[in-house]
Structures are given as C-alpha cells and as structure tokens.
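Handoff note, outgoing to incoming analyst
You'll be picking up this chain. Sequence as last confirmed:
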Amino acid sequence: MDSVIAAHKQVGRTLRHLVAIAERGREGIVVFDLNKVIQFVNAAWAVMHGYKTTDELIGKQISTFHTEEQMASDVIPFIKETEQKGQFTGRLGHVRGDGTPFFTEMLMVVLNDDAVRAVGLIGFAADITKKERTEEELKRYRQHMAELIKQRTEELEASNSRLQSQVTEHEQAGQKLKQEMAELSAASEQLREQIREHERAKDELEQHIDKLEQRLRRQSDELTAARARFQDEITMRKKQDEYFKQQTDTIKAAGERLQAQIDKLSAGAPIGESDMSKAGDWGKPAGSIMDNEKTMLENVFRQNVVLQKPKLNTAAEENSH
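Most recent structure output, in case you need it:
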C-alpha cells in the first residue's frame, strides 16, 4: 500500500512539474473546453492580453480575447479546422483588455480523454506585433527611398543635361568663354561626385535592407523552433499521460489483490485455490504470496521512477533553453 501511495505522489509531482513548465513558458498558453470556456492560462498569455493575473481569466469565454469580427471571420473557422485535423497553425487576430488589437502566430491542438474523445483545445500563441511593425516599416522605408532615388536621379540628369548644353554654347562662343567653360567643367565634376556619393548611399541602403531581411529570417526561424518545441512537449505529455495511466492501473490491480488476501488472512479465512491461481502462485503459502505481491509492487514502482527520470530531465532541459 505504501508503494501505491508513493506512486501516486510521484505522478502528482510530475504533473506539478509540467504545470510549472507551462507557467514559465515565454509563449502564451490557453486551455479551453468544447464550450469555449477557459480552463487554464499561463502568465505569458495573461500579460500578452493586458491582464495582471491568470485567475481572473479562468471560467471566461475564449471570446474575451477577440472582437466579434475576429470571432466570426477568424477564430471560429480556426477552431473548426483544428477539430477536424487535430491541430492547426496560422496567423490569428487578438485584442487586449484595453481594446488594443494585435496579431499572433497560433498553434492549436485538440485535447482528448482516455477514450480518445475530444474534451477541449489547447492554444500556443507568440506575439508577432514587432515582426508586423518591422515589416511595415521596411516596406515604407523602401518606398520612400525609391521615390527619393528616382527624384534625385531625375534632378541630376536634368542638371547635367543643362550643363552640357551650356558647355556646348560656350564652346561655340569662342576663346572668350574658356574660363567659363572651366568653371562649368568643375561644376560637372562636382555633380559626378554627388552621383558617386549617391551610389555609395544606395549601396549602404541595400546593405541595411539585407540586414533587416536577415533579422526577419532569424525571427521567423525562432518562431518556427518555438512551435516545434511546443509540439514536442505536447507529444511528450500525451505519452506520459498514457504511461501514468498504465502504471496506475497495474498498481491498483496488484493492490486490490494484495488487500483481498490480507483481508482473508485477517479474518482467519483460508486462501483457496482460486485465490492462489489469481495471484499466480498455486500451492504456495499465504505469506509467500503476499511477499510476491509486495515484490511486484516494488518492481513496478521502481520501473515507473526509472522511466520517468529521463523524461523529466528532458522537459527541464528544454525549459532551461
């Protein structure tokens, strides 16, 4: 019986550890049932949406984080797509508690019970407001620079054309205009230098644009890696839940058989052949059967602890990264 209690305590510690991982996650996490009632949010989700605590959000509708228009055009279709496919990823509009709209990169997964029936959904969200703003600023910057370049080029070409015309006129005027021609030539050289400076500025602009694009690619890669980590964690949790259930059922069954034998011994009743055959120890003394049951429970518990340690360590390492 002590082994059973210890096993349950181990399961409880593991579940608390998984909840702690979710609480410390940088991405927002929300769990809601099929009626769209919120069952869990982590601190990142609450802060992302402008709330101070997670408790004030439990029990509310998922529509708390979206406008009516977002719910109708984006959120409801997103949830239906998730329910059909088991999971779905995409860009989704949200709204903060003060009414400020923003966009997230959303991963949503269906939650199933032991009978593989859908009981709710879990969502993982990363705020891409900065990414959207950077892309918009880059777009405006490119348009502005293109207009400046075009305008400056036209001005330089027009100015150069005028200077060339003046040079031609002065050459036809003769020797008296040689000094003026020299001045115009100097002005033309100055314009060429300005053109070279313009080309250098253009090269610097292209380098700056390349750096911005590299930054956007890095941010995109980080978001992709974050989604992959979340998916791995979900898969690991499902496997752990299945394993915990199997071990709990095994321990429970062994405990019931052992308790039944103890009850019979306490009552002074003899253990019959049917009891022994159930225990798998036909013809052995009662004490030996009880020892075997106890040994089996201890072995199951040790296997449970040994198998869980690598999984817990893996989850902890991912959280530290």
